[in-house]
Structure formats: structure tokens, C-alpha cells
């Protein structure tokens, strides 16, 4: 059990992990599921492992490139609970402003044809921005 804790702490010193992510990394080294859960519970009680902190850091790190939908999807895939995701999303700032920033880096000018407009919308949708944020940016609203 001590070896498992040391291995977990070594991973956590590099970066934060979600509980599910850390459990996956440590599973091969644990003698039993119960031992692994006990180590993870201890780390959580000591606040060394926190899904809330992980979600907030992940949102801050990736919000400059992605919209809320994409951030939610990524956090769910990492096993973060919906409550923690909802608490972390405001850390990324205003989605419309982020959308405008991404759009300006990629395209710089408003679309001149329906084809160009569709291309820009698809790009921003792929990045996970809401249709409302995309609509505001492509209309040139709030400039």
C-alpha cells in the first residue's frame, strides 16, 4: 500500500489528475481494487487529489482554444462529475470572447459567401463553441 501511495504521489507532483484517471494509471500496480480505492480515498481526504481542482486547471489551460461543450466533453471523458464541471467552467471566462479570439486567429475577416460562412461555423462548432457564441462572432456583434 505504501508503494502505491508513493507511486500516486510521484504522478501527482507532475500534474493534477482526476480520480478516474489516476485510478487507471495505478490499477496495474495495485494488489487489489480495495487497496487502490483506500489509497485514493486517503489522497482525497488529504486534498492531494481533487477532481474540482483538476477540472478548474484543465478549463483554464484549454479555454483559450475550446468552447464550453468541448471542455465539458473532455472532462466527462476523464471521469469528472457534472457538478465539478459546472463549477469549473466559469474559470474559462466569457465563451463569446474566447470564440472571437479563436476566430480572429484563424480567419481574421467576416465570411463573404455562404460557403465561407459554413466553413467558419463548422470550425468553431468543432472547437466546441455554442451556436449563440458563433452567431455573435459571425455577425460582428459586440466588436
TrEMBL record:
Modulates RecA activity. Residues 94-138 form the RecX third three-helical domain. This is Regulatory protein RecX. Keywords: Cytoplasm. It holds the Pfam family RecX_HTH1. Residues 6-43 form the RecX first three-helical domain. Belongs to the RecX family. It comes from the Bacteria. Gene3D superfamilies: Winged helix-like DNA-binding domain superfamily/Winged helix DNA-binding domain (1.10.10.10). The keyword Cytoplasm applies. Residues 50-89 form the RecX second three-helical domain. It is found in: Cytoplasm.
Amino acid at each position: 500500500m505504501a508503494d502505491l501511495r508513493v507511486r500516486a504521489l510521484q504522478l501527482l507532483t507532475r500534474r493534477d489528475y482526476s480520480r478516474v484517471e489516476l485510478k487507471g494509471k495505478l490499477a496495474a500496480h495495485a494488489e487489489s481494487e480495495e487497496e487502490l480505492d483506500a489509497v485514493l480515498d486517503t489522497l482525497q481526504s488529504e486534498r492531494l487529489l481533487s477532481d474540482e481542482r483538476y477540472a478548474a486547471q484543465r478549463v483554464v489551460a484549454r479555454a483559450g482554444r475550446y468552447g464550453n461543450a468541448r471542455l465539458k466533453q473532455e472532462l466527462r471523458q476523464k471521469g469528472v462529475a457534472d457538478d465539478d464541471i459546472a463549477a469549473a467552467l466559469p474559470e474559462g471566462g466569457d465563451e463569446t470572447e474566447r470564440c472571437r479570439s479563436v476566430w480572429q486567429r484563424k480567419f481574421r475577416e467576416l465570411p463573404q459567401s455562404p460557403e465561407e460562412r459554413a466553413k467558419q461555423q463548422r470550425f468553431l462548432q468543432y472547437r466546441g463553441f455554442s451556436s449563440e457564441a458563433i452567431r455573435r462572432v459571425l455577425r460582428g456583434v459586440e466588436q
